[in-house]
Structures are given as structure tokens and as C-alpha cells.
Amino acid sequence: MKCRHCGNTGFIPFADLQTAPPSNAMLTEAGLLEPELYFPLVVEVCDACFLAQVDEHQQASDIFDSDYTYFSSYSRSWLQHAERFAAMATERFGLTEKSHVLEIASNDGYLLQYFHQRGIPVLGIEPTANTAEVAIGKGIPTVVEFFGRQIAEERLSAAAELIVGNNVFAHVPDINDFSAGLKAALKPGGVISLEFPHLLRLIEQAQFDTIYHEHFSYLSLGTTERILAAQGLKIFDVEQLPTHGGSLRIFAAHAEDETKRGLSSVAEVLAEEERAGLRARDIYQQFQPRIERIRADFIGFLLEQRGAGAKVVGYGAAAKGNTLLNYCGIKGNELIRFVADLSPYKQGRFLPGSHIPVVGPDRIEAEKPDYIVIFPWNLRDEIEEQLGNVLGWGARFVTAIPELRIR
Ligand SMILES: [Zn+2]
Fold first, then answer.
1. Which residues lie at CB < 5 A from ion ligand 1?
2. DSSP structure string for 9-77
């Protein structure tokens, strides 16, 4: 294995989740009878540039195909997040009808719609055809392609005042090629905004369930700065966001852009990472025993409830839940009867690996479970509010990470 940024071959062990099927590969009833592909799910950290990464076992084109079932617009809080970003960016960077906003991994148009409403020309780049179709239906021009240096040079050359990439930078197998594409597509004086989960928060909160095959890199600000600098880009501002358990939103510009000076926010986060030890071996090597403890506690809870005859169900058929369930070796619906999800694209299907059925949220009301395990813990408040009525029969909410909590 070679580091996908610097090519170094020395690695520090970090998280070994054994093997799992791709997290978004939801199964149909017929698919349950077919063999399932399992891939190693192991994250190691380059001991030269400290990029935490999974080895590439599967082509990105196999993961993000037409069966891809993640539609951003099904999360209300994520839509609000996108709307606030559009308002902020329009004002801060003075965007007008003459500007051009490019979003990479624009999904179903959840973000670009808010620029479009303001009359600002937009373009989305989205590799999954079924989500792109929804965006096009909303009037958002969308190119169905993977983003990288080639498409940026051929079709988008220096076109964009603002390039947005939310939860895509960590998802690309060739992070250097992607960064070169950002450089090529950015107008002189333009701004790049990228959001990705912060490796420091992943470690602090033991968020090992955010590790899955679609997620190739786990990023600190220090490593991101280094990757972008190699392509002639500089980070001039960073914000810490609560999304996905703690994300960074970085703002970058051409290295030669004298109008963008590094703000103190950048030095502060870099110093915090340094103090936490992200540039040394220990913090990574101490991670595995913590996730093994979480696994033992969660399995213990499920077995105890089965013994007591209690009814346990899940909520939120997200990738996170699949990492947890597969790492815990859960198979079939004896311990967790079903997982409820709002998305009609997931209902009627089965989770990869565990084969737990996915149903509509109305089944919770019908079955009146004793416990509801919330898998997307980052949306816990939103989900508890949506399900408020279940408390009428005394159901309790459970989250497994960063430790088993029952409320
Ligand atoms: Zn490296």
C-alpha cells in the first residue's frame, strides 16, 4: 500500500473493522439469495504526511452507481445547513447574476437550488445519475461525471468564482487529481469551500462508524493544507461545524491570490491538532481498544434485551449504521427487528451484510418497540423530535457511539 497523497509506504495502524460489504449497497429481496462481496475495512495513517486512509479495494465507479440511494434532500437539518451556507457565501464573496457557482457532488441539487433561487448561475457535477436527474428536474444544470483534473481542464477551465465540495473531498480515491481539478476550475480571485468530517473529532468521539469504503480519506486541517498546497492552493480560513459529528469547512484560494490572507482561525485549528498529537503515532495506536469496547457494550445491550423479551428496532438506514452492525457481526433481524427510514428509496430493501429489513417510520407506531437505536447519531435531535410520539408508550432511545447511551 502506498499513501494516496505522498506515495510513502510507512503506515501507523489505526482502525481495523475487519471486512464489510459497501455501506450503501442496499439489497432487494432477490439480492438476499445472492453472494455478497465483502472488502477489508482497515484505516491506516501515513507516517510521513499523516493522511488517514483506507486501501482502495473497490472502484469508485462501482460504489457510486445508479443504485446509489443517498438523497441529500431527505434530511431537513442538512437542507437548512445548505440554505444558510448559500446566504453567507453570496454575501461574503459578493456573488451576483454574473458569478458562477460550481458544486462538486451536487447530489439532488439540495445546495445549488438556493443559489439558483437568487439568480446566480450554477453548475453541478454529480456521478450518480439518479440523484442528478432529480437536480435537473429542479432546473439545476448537472453534468453526470466524476470530478477531476481532466474534466476541469476540458470543460470548466477557470470558470468558477465559488467551488463548493461538501462531503466529497474525503470520498475521492485520487485526492491529488481532485485537488488539481479544483485549481484548474477556479477563476483568479475565486474561492473554494470544502466541508469534511474532522479527523480530530472522529478520534475524540470514537466515531469509528463514519469509516466505510466510500470514504477513502480521514482529514485533519494540517494534512488538507499540505494536499492543497501541492497543487498551488492555500487555505485562508476555516470554520468548525457540528455537522457529521464535527466537520471543518475550509476556504481556499489560489496560492498567488494576494487578496486572501490567512486568518487566525487557521493557525488556531492547526495548533489544536498539534496539541492533540495528530502528528505523532500514539493517538492513532490507542484507537482500536476504544472501538472494541463500544462493540462489546452494544452487543451486550442487544443480547440482554433479547433475554428480557424486549423489542428493539433501529432508525435511520445510514452508512454509519451498517459499519456498526457489520463490525458487531449482527446478521438477521433477531436482535434488531427492522430499521425505519424516511427515504422511499430505501424502504422495502435490506441492509448490506446484516440483512435487516428497512421499513417506513409508520411501522414504529404499529409495533410500539421498547427501544429505538438511532444509527445516524449526528441527526439524533432531529430524529428524536420527529419520533416524539413514541414516548407515549415509554419507548427509549439508544445510541452506541461514543458510548452506549439509553435515554
Ligand atoms: Zn502520505
1. 3, 5-6, 8, 46, 48-49, 51
2. --EEEEEEEEEE--TT--B-TGGGGS----EEEEEEEETTT--EEE---S-HHHHSSTT----GGG-HH
